[in-house]
Amino acid sequence: MSDKATLDRNFKHPGYWPSQWPVECGGNRRQKAAVGRLDASESHPSVTTITNNRWNVMAVQRDLGEWYIGGTMPAFSGPPPYGWVKKINPISLETIVESPQLPCGDHVWCGAILAHTNGSIMSVNGSFMHRLDPQDLSIICERELPISRAHNGLLSLSDGTLVTKDLRLEAQGGTTLTFLEPEGLTVLQTLVLPEGSMGRIAADYSDGIESIFVPGTEHIWKIEMVDGTGTITDWKAQYRTSKSDVGLAWDSCISENHLWLMDCGDINAVRAIHNTVPNGRFEGLEGRKQLSWQLPAPWNGAQRLLRVNQKTGHVDDIEPFGNPGGGIIAPPVNVPEYQLVIAWDSINGGLAGISTDGTLEPSWHLDVRPTMQPVIYPESGELVINDFTANQSDDLIVVDIESGELVSRVATGSRIANGMFLSPGENRDVYYCSTLSFARISWAQ
């Protein structure tokens, strides 16, 4: 392990309820780092799977033993979709209480939930924001957002301000960021970027200023918060052009004074969902044939890992696998404790640990096919991610970060893989979310 083991890990999250996992990826830097150890090699895993025929997106923690799962309905045709949030038993996964059906503007896309510093559970789904009571999940406040498109991701800034954005692909106009105060969900500001944006936002403090980083269609953009107002800065990093033979970038992982991203993300399924309005709604079944992430990529370029200097905007890139037509639906994760960043190619298959000590060079490869937002355990040096097998079984695997050795494997019971979120539980367990089912995998004795 590197001597930089405590480099920039911070499990206190201003703007959130005091929890180790109050928001997707564990915090605004999206470092996906869990507290403690998993030690998966020491015991055989057990799995509890709930099939609910819903699009399960993420699980977040409020107090100890208090877990929520949020998502939407995979209603790509037929009856109108809606968002939902459940409070679940953290062991059995049984529902304790469920929210009412949450309007989403008829858009079908993976929204987000978080446990806010004011105690409420916040949910964004489609073009609606909701503030929910944490006990009975009743609606405290509902706000239709200014832009009627699917919104991708939700963060709380250090002062509690909520920020979300609509999702726009290339040639769909500039993406709008919407800032809301957290009590009555009043819109404080809307900010239109010069480009569309697909990936979720990340945020960080640098030089005493809170900044938001947004992956655009050609550039990474930086918004600075000054006196509660967001301003687009002159800082930007170009990672592709409109003529590039690669796709758009997903979210950033902010670590070691860099942003870490992967491009080749607007695969055919993503394009199909966001090229129809309302997003993700099709007449009949014909359009739904485009919704598999396993279809060939709409470009010839290989999957790239991008390293963007947080100060200068300089971009380094590497093709860890070199196979044409690469594609992903989730971002990478940097592990400064081991001077490695983890990347993968979902369409062609392949997982890699890439050295960040100097130039970017692959340290190991593993023949698996991940798609999800992973979780890492820096203390025990373990990566948890999925592997969608040739038998169409979505397994959860544990990989030794330093060596790339496969440590543990368990079938989740899901036959569908997507790019949703893993969350670390409280006792050597991980929560898994996918379309039609969610699960708890435990390595505790």
How would the blueprint of this fold be written?
Layout: E1 46-61, E2 67-72, E3 83-88, E4 95-98, E5 112-115, E6 121-125, E7 128-132, E8 139-144, E9 151-156, E10 162-166, E11 176-180, E12 187-192, E13 202-206, E14 209-215, E15 219-226, E16 229-238, E17 253-255, E18 258-262, H1 268-274, E19 305-309, E20 315-318, E21 333-335, E22 340-344, E23 351-355, E24 361-366, E25 375-377, E26 382-388, E27 394-400, E28 406-414, E29 422-424, E30 429-433, E31 435-442
Antiparallel strand pairs: 1-2, 1-31, 2-3, 3-4, 5-6, 6-7, 7-8, 9-10, 10-11, 11-12, 13-14, 14-15, 15-16, 17-18, 18-19, 19-20, 21-22, 22-23, 23-24, 25-26, 26-27, 27-28, 29-30, 30-31
How would you characterize the overall build of this protein?
With 445 residues, the chain is mainly beta. It is globular. The two termini are 27 Å apart. The N terminus is likely disordered.
Q: Treating each run of at least 4 consecutive H or I residues as one helix, how many helices?
A: 1
Q: Within the largest sheet, what's the order of strands?
A: 4-3-2-1-31-30-29
- CATH C-level class is Mainly Beta
Tell me the number of structural domains.
1
Poorly predicted runs are: 1-8
The CATH architecture can be given as 7 Propeller
Specify Rg, calculated over alpha carbons: 20 Å
Mean pLDDT: 94
Largest sheet: 7 strands, antiparallel
Q: Bin the strand percentage.
A: 35-45%
The CATH superfamily bears the name YVTN repeat-like/Quinoprotein amine dehydrogenase
Helix content: under 10%
The CATH topology: Methylamine Dehydrogenase, Chain H
Number of strands: 31
Kindly, what is the distance between the CA atoms of the first and last residues, rounded to a whole number of angstroms? 27 Å
